[in-house]
Automatic annotation (TrEMBL):
This is Calpain catalytic domain-containing protein. Keywords: Hydrolase, Protease, Thiol protease. Belongs to the peptidase C2 family. One of its GO terms (molecular function) is calcium-dependent cysteine-type endopeptidase activity. It comes from the Eukaryota. InterPro entries: Calpain_cysteine_protease, Papain-like_cys_pep_sf, Pept_cys_AS, Peptidase_C2_calpain_cat. Gene3D superfamilies: Cysteine proteinases.
Amino acid sequence: MSWGEDDGETAHMNGKPAAQVVEEPCVVTKNTDVEALGERGSGFRKQTDIQDFYKIRDECLAEGKLWEDPEFEAVDSSIFFSRSPPRPFEWKRPMEIVDNPRLFVEGATRFDVQQGELGDCWLLAAVANLTLQPTLFHQVVPDDQSFVDKYAGIFHFRFWQYGRWVDVVVDDRLPTCYGKLVYLHSSQSNEFWSALLEKAYAKLHGSYEALKGGSTCEAMEDFTGGVSEMYDLEKPPSNLFQILLKAFERNSLMGCSIEPDPSVTEMQTAEGLVKGHAYSITRVQYVDINTPNTQGKIPLLRLRNPWGNEAEWTGAWSDKSPEWRFIPESEKQEIGLVFEEDGEFWMSYRD
């Protein structure tokens, strides 16, 4: 695999398949709960003045200029820390990429998360889950910014760091190649919240390359202020599905991954799952099943691959698999069953 395709280290336990759950999110209740990046205790050493989003935006609007971030400049070192770019990258603002840029197009959904050339599937799995919880989402992605009202080329995002929420501001210059975004992007070409969120997280960690390989648990904690738990799927608790079901009902964020085996060259299982790759768990449900011989409920999980393409599970309960003929139409509608090459798929918990 090329550098851009290698997802590196993903969340796992003891080198085995694992599931991750983060619970008890910490919610921002007032503006004083948030520290500006660079303030004492924010985990970031400032080079210039403390970056206050509202102050900077107002100053830029008054002066009629677009902001350029002196802390995270549009230079190669903001992308790579260990090497030179493999090809020329050009930093462009969304208005230079498309005619009608928007922060959101018909709201934010998990399908807005399409992995680019960076091995940060661990982060994207958490971002996709974040869209399922509107309150948590707008805690991380404040809704007081846009490309229309008070646009000054500056956006801000909030992450939980060292026991407090930290507000990270970025300008909207993004790495491109031949006019296309290089890294995280939306399925809608004129939607940019996900690309800007990734840039803010890269700034927090020093560069885009610093996001290559990581823990989905860490990203979930940074998005919620919650506490994460990890379960080894080779030695799971007997009630793990009930744990996952309760976590889903409580709006917890969940993900899973398979640790790659260094002795095996094949990076994909026979059923299409990618080893060393993070997946979001987007639904947990008992589904009614009615076969000629049995009636009852089967435990199913809905997963999403951050690649957002045809790389999906191909085993039982995959898209258009014969098992679905035993599920009543009303049940299919209730769980929102669709068969598309969008990276999302169902599978049995037992698999």
